[in-house]
Write a structure and sequence with these properties.
about 140 residues; alpha/beta; Rossmann fold; 5-stranded parallel β-sheet; 6 helices; globular
């Protein structure tokens, strides 16, 4: 049996599980978010910068973006703006260590929520579900 190419495995995995893309310049944050999300049943793609995400092949199966607000070059807010200009309305959640109130800032940027790092795992998973239109508090 021929080995499966990594891109094929990701495509196959995302057909079964919702896909979340993590864009964060901090490798430790990316890794911990990836571990949490995969343990929670999500397929995950990670990107070290907004530029890396913008240069990746376009996908139509992304359920949610987790974006670091402050990255070198293009930050999370500017990434959302660029995606919206291209007609990409993928739900996004901003993550930051910034102590400011993020609710109005996230809304103005077009994100569905802004969360402070370190983020509470339960809160993050709840907002990802909401972003994907699968609010667990109102399902049943």
């Amino acid at each position: 049996m021929a080995p499966i190419e990594p891109a094929t495995m990701i495509k196959s995995a995302t057909n079964l599980r919702p896909l979340v893309c993590v864009v964060d310049d901090d490798a430790d944050n990316r890794d911990s978010l990836q571990a949490l999300l995969e343990a929670s049943g999500y397929a995950v793609l990670t990107f070290a910068s907004a530029a890396d995400y913008l240069h990746a092949p376009a996908r139509d199966d992304i359920g949610c973006l987790l974006l670091d607000m402050h990255m070198p070059g293009i930050g999370g807010i500017e990434l959302i703006e660029r995606l919206r200009e291209r007609g990409d309305e993928t739900p996004a959640i901003l993550l930051t260590v910034d102590g400011r109130d993020l609710s109005k800032l996230a809304e103005a940027a077009g994100a569905i929520k802004g969360l402070h790092k370190p983020v509470n795992d339960g809160d993050l998973l709840l907002w990802i579900e909401r972003a994907m239109g699968r609010d667990p508090l109102h399902s049943q």
